[in-house]
């Protein structure tokens, strides 16, 4: 099994400190449905973001078993412990040396608290990189490619979409015949033939609703197990990814927009047709979508939207249209955001060691 490649040897403990900054990502082809252990039912593709990041510092102290303390923005937060413990339990077989450490984990997000932006992708990616940082210190002959793959592999075991938050500007996670290096176990970067327009693409995140979600992503993935349209959805996503790959090389924005918006609405259609059904859209989400369609048709500007598992809208546009589109957002879309708030982000190059 390929995953055996990621089992490291045990090693004696050494004190070590690691700091990494990992970005969030926004999927263009959505991951929605998985099987154990965190294997996606379809391949997905995302833009790595740039300013929406989690920065995590881990102080590794030699100990007789693996224990940890977690601090978020300087405050001790034991409410996060079950999630982190579950992650550590899952990854210990791959990093057996961790049983010799107590970890003091300090984490901060760049985006505002309770903005409705999911932080699990950037948080799990940053923590996985801290762990790989120490593993590289213990085994210095490790190659860069292995470092990235294993960081993505570990991040995936924390949160599926986190696998796509290690590298940039575009990553693919899940097996697809149209990308020979793709894997269900980790994400891989798109490759050097990505059209340059996508390297500087913009993502304005319109904060429509910060309220806690009625259904978490994890529950949403579960609901795909008995979903009447599941198989059709998984094949649709695989086909959309196959169709999107050549578009990401050619830079055909009309074709890009059609697939990206279809994916966003298909994701929400799955939510609306599961048992139990649920709706994460808000009236303002739809108002924004309609305004974008009207503006695109009228102004001939290649702007489109995508959605996460929530009410916020990600507005996507090429860098050369940044000032016109941001003017439009400010004048016509900000009124639909909570307290008029939105974040301007852009496609980024991946995580960074601090
Ligand atoms: C709608 O990665 O948050 O954002 O693997 O259970 O942690 P878990 O789920 P998560 O799901 C992300 C769902 C999505 C689509 C996507 O990012 O591809």
Question: Your description of this structure?
Answer:
This protein has 354 residues and is α+β, with helices and mostly antiparallel strands. The protein has two domains: 2-193, Ribosomal Protein S5, domain 2, CATH 3.30.230; 201-346, GHMP kinase, C-terminal domain (Alpha-Beta Plaits). Helix content is 34%, strand content 23%. It contains eight helices and 14 strands. The chain has helices at 81-91, 120-138, 144-158, 217-223, 230-250, 253-272, 283-299, 322-333, and strands at residues 16-29, 34-35, 39-40, 44-62, 67-72, 75-76, 101-109, 170-173, 187-189, 202-206, 304-307, 313-317, 342-346, 352-353. Strands 1, 4, 5, 6, 7, 8, 9 and 14 form an eight-stranded mixed β-sheet that branches. The chain has a four-stranded antiparallel β-sheet with strand order 11-12-10-13. A two-stranded antiparallel sheet has the order 2-3. Helix 2 (120-138) crosses helix 3 (144-158) and helix 5 runs antiparallel to helix 6. The longest helix is centred in the last third of the chain and has 21 residues, at 230-250. It is globular. It binds ligand DP6.
List the main descriptive attributes of the protein structure presented here.
single chain; 354 residues; alpha+beta; Ribosomal Protein S5, domain 2; Alpha-Beta Plaits; 2 domains; eight-stranded mixed beta sheet; four-stranded antiparallel beta sheet; 8 helices; 14 strands; binds ligand DP6
């Amino acid at each position: 099994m390929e995953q055996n490649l990621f089992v490291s040897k045990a090693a004696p403990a050494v004190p070590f400190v690691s700091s990494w900054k990992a970005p969030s990502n926004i999927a263009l082809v959505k991951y929605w449905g998985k099987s154990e252990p965190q294997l996606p039912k379809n391949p997905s593709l995302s833009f790595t973001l740039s300013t929406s990041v989690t920065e995590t510092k881990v102080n590794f102290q030699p100990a007789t078993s693996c224990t940890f303390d977690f601090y978020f923005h300087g405050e001790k937060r034991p409410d996060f412990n079950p999630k982190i413990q579950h992650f550590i339990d899952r990854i210990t077989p791959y990093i057996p040396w961790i049983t010799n450490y107590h970890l003091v984990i300090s984490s901060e997000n760049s985006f505002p608290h309770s903005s409705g932006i999911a932080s699990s992708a950037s948080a799990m990616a940053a923590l996985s990189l801290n762990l790989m940082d120490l593993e590289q210190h213990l085994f210095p002959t490790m190659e860069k490619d292995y470092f990235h793959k294993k960081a993505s592999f570990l991040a995936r075991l924390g949160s599926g979409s986190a696998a796509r938050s290690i590298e940039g500007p575009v990553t693919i996670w899940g097996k697809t015949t149209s990308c020979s290096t793709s894997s269900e176990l980790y994400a891989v970067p798109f490759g050097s033939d990505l059209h340059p327009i996508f390297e500087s693409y913009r993502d304005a995140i319109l904060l429509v609703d910060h309220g806690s979600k009625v259904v978490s992503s994890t529950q949403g993935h579960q609901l795909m197990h008995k979903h009447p349209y599941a198989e059709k959805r998984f094949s649709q996503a695989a086909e959309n990814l196959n169709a999107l790959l050549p578009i990401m090389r050619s830079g055909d924005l009309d074709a890009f927009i059609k697939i990206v918006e279809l994916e966003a609405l298909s994701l929400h259609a799955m939510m609306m047709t599961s048992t139990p059904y649920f709706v994460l859209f808000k009236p303002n989400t739809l108002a924004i979508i309609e305004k974008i369609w009207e503006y695109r048709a009228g102004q001939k500007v290649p702007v489109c939207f995508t959605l996460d598992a929530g009410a916020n809208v990600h507005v996507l546009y090429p860098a050369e249209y940044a000032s016109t589109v941001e003017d439009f957002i400010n004048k016509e879309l900000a009124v639909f955001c909570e307290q008029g708030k939105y974040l301007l982000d852009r496609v980024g190059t991946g995580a960074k060691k601090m």
